[in-house]
Amino acid sequence: MVSRRDFLAGSVALVGGAAVVRPSLASAWQQAAQQPPPPQPAPLTPVFTELRRNVGFFTGRGGTIGYLIDPAAVVVVDSGYPDAAKLCLDGLNERSKNRAIDLLINTHHHDDHTLGNIVFKPSVKKMLAHAQAVELMKTRPGRGAAPSEVAIPAATFTDVMREQVGGESIRVKYYGRGHTSGDAVITFERANVAHMGDLMFNRRQAIVDPPAGASLKNWVTVLEKAAADHANDTIYIFGHAGPNQPVTGSKADLMVFRDFLTALLTFVQGEIKSGKTKDQIIAIRTPVPGFDSHGPLAAAVLTAAYDELTAG
Question: What are the angstrom distances between the C-alpha of 300 and each of 5, 58, 80, 175?
Answer without folding.
Answer: 44, 28, 23, 24
